[in-house]
Write a structure and sequence with these properties.
This protein has 130 residues and is mainly beta. It is built from no helices and 11 strands. Helix content is 0%, strand content 50%. Strand 5 and strand 6 form a beta hairpin. It is globular, with a radius of gyration of 14 Å.
């Protein structure tokens, strides 16, 4: 079992940057595909990005590609979401999630789907002012 704690959210002006962190406790963090999702009130949870076990492969939603970067430090049991050139439409609660590696490539529909992730952080609010 894995427990996830999201942090790093806050209020930032448009064009600014934030780095979110997701600290995992429990064993075998490196066995999990890690994803980031976001959700506005009244909307479905939206895929932001995912990263493979080693960190060598990443996948991003088109809306954040080129602005957001996912990385992980398996020794520190932590995954990061570096967000740059933030826009007001990036405002949401951001969640990290973990799912065991099923031998399916990151970048496929499977890891872009929130329902396929078994473990979730509590979320951290990101607000981008115009």
């Amino acid at each position: 079992q894995v427990q996830l704690v999201d942090s790093g959210g806050g209020l930032v002006q448009a064009g600014g940057s934030l780095r979110l962190s997701c600290a995992a406790s429990g064993r075998a963090f490196s066995r999990y595909i890690m994803g980031w999702f976001r959700q506005d009130p009244g909307k479905e949870r939206e895929f932001v990005g995912a990263i493979s076990r080693s960190g060598s492969t990443t996948d991003y939603a088109d809306s954040v590609k080129g602005r957001f970067t996912i990385s992980r430090d398996n020794a520190a049991n932590t995954v990061y979401l570096q967000m740059s050139s933030l826009k007001p439409e990036d405002t949401a609660v951001y969640y990290c999630a973990a799912e065991p590696d099923h031998g399916i490539n990151v970048g496929t529909y499977y890891y872009r789907t929130a329902e396929n992730y078994v473990y979730w952080g509590q979320g951290t609010q990101v607000t981008v002012s115009s």
